[in-house]
Amino acid sequence: MAAYILRRLWQMIPTILGVVLLVFFLFKYFGGDPAEILGGLNATPEQIAAIRQQLGLDKPVWVQLGLYLQSVATFDWGKSWATNEAVSHLFSSRLPATLTVMLPILVLEVIVALPVAMWVSYRRGSLADRTLMVVTTIALSISFLVYIIVGQYVFGFQLGWFPVQGWSDSTWTNLTTYVPLPVLLAVFVALAPYTRLYRTFFLDELGQDYVRTARAKGMTEGRVMFSHVLRNAMIPILTNVGLALPGVFVGSFLIEVFFSIPGLGREILLAVNRSDYPVIQAIAVYLAALTMVINLIVDVLFKLVDPRVVLK
Amino acid sequence: MSTASHDVVAPAAAQRSDGVWLAAWRRFKADRVGLVSACVVLAFIVLVAVSALGWVAKGWQDEVGVANAPPTLLGPRPAEATGAIEVPKGPNADLSAVDPLAPRYADIDAAASKYRTTDAAKADTLPMGGDRLGRDVMSKAIKGTQISVFVGVLAAVLATLIGTVLGALGGFFGGKVGDFLEWLYNVFEAIPGILLIFAFAAVFGRGIGTVVLILGLAGWTGLYRQVRAEFMKHSGREYVRAAEAIGASSTSRMFKHILPNISHVILVRMSLLVVGFIKSEVILSYLGLGVGVEDVSWGTMLAEAQSELILGYWWQLAAATGFMAVFVTAFSLMADAVRDALDPKLRGLE
Predict the structure, then answer these.
(1) Was domain A98-305 assigned CATH 1.10.3720.10?
(2) Interface confidence (ipTM) of the complex
(3) In terms of Cα–Cα distance, which of A29, A267, A42, A275 is closest to B205?
(4) Which of A1, B201, B315, B325 keeps 20 to 30 A from B84, CA to CA?
(5) CB–CB of A273 and B288 under 8 A?
(6) Which residues in chain B have Cβ-Cβ distances shorter than 8 Å to A200?
(7) B313 and chain A: CB distance < 8 Å anywhere?
(8) Nearest CA of chain B to the CA of A174: how many Å?
(9) Where do the CATH 1.10.3720.10 domains begin and end in chain A?
(10) Nearest to A281 by CA among A101, A100, A64
(11) pLDDT tens digits for B270-284?
């Protein structure tokens, strides 16, 4: 186990290096000149030159790359160009808001989609099953934007059940006042793809020989479904949740933008609009590393949950 | 398995079995849902072509109706009781005795007549309503369909090209080239998709071509993976080794022999990409990172519709949503039918 973890960590190094190189050269050669972005429209050539010197842009490329690698290795991400806020502080102050919204969404999605998928896969081909497939196909074709726009209008503006948007300093107020509407909408939207996906997982298991054997020896349908099929179907479902986990940290930027939630997703979008390169670069590298670490943890957890899994 | 291998193996007199495309077409024809959705997609493609040629929706930027003109079905909006100041009746008071400009009235009239503009009559209602500026929502929706579908399809073609070429190189040659491409794949996969799109958007700016480039560059990884696996499987097959024995070059083996045999896999993947890219384009355009301000797409329409909805003008939202829902539903159903027809092994899973 330890050897496996070490090897996986070792394999991450070239990938992370690749992400750093990609991000560095993308912004270096395709992005605008940082000095001109920082200087603004009225900057004199002297000011531009001064900014270039300050950022080290007048040094050769490989020196700049070295400096960049150094900042990545020491977790010193520098400061945002737009607000002069340290990027590390940006992470620590925005992440709680993102998690407050995203964790309930992730948990509720699975809790709601699981029984629905289990039920329709058990009654495969029935009217309920076919209706659900048609409804999910249509629901999937409508943009997420429309759900949010209409949801805010109906529940927030017309009915007045929830505030249309907002955020406070208290986590409890956030959870009880501001989070319900975005969570409700996001779970509703995610229900269609998740139900379809879980349904295929359940159908895969229902077609297996062990199900027939269990039925043949007179096991009740409830026991077949809950102690055999469900447990086996949980493996791909949990894999899927594991894949969705890194997304919890980046946050649904659409939800955060629409509901004015001061999270990481909104911060990324702000950074993109302001050409705030240090923030975008830092978030890209940090999230890539986080994604890989989470994937590793999920793989290891699988070994603990399911003894049949062999770690290679 | 394929036309190519059958042509080689079967003697001339033996009954030829159907090629993979003919067999797929036979299966597709039997799928009623697939056929209907294919017809809907075809109708949309005709609409896009007609709009691109400028035969319809050419004047989508013309302000043909009153601001926020309601749809014809609803009838014109009742005149608002604005309580304006009453216009005084009778002729204007004659000031020429005291007005110092009086001797130049003729000059002023002559100068003013040069600038006279014709104010076109503005319609009270439009077929599907009007937007904030009185532009016809139907024309906008058609033009938006053109842009959104165009971007989605072109980005899918770009992603397919990148994925196929890299996948072919990686799967066929393996070794150093394969390792390098695997590394590249891992790097692209490590960054969350939406973040990658944002990073590209921050660097490349706005515009239709840029959106195509961004989506294509960020979306090739899934296709690469599948094409690579197929090439690895096929490169050891007998027909490829036979081609090698008669002196076919690597390029010829890759693209003349193997590629036609896996083209159905690529087609299925590509049609799935189109749907995803259209949705991404809508979101990018909504956020102002997509098409430019002088273009219209479903995303920019939704962005405008948000503020209109609060005022009760729901038609632009309905038009954009309706066009998009019909197209995307039809396209996904068609893609499913194509997948079932071309890859019967996968059938029945969903």
Answers:
(1) yes
(2) 0.79
(3) A275
(4) B315
(5) yes
(6) 349-350
(7) no
(8) 24
(9) 98-305
(10) A64
(11) 888 898 899 888 888
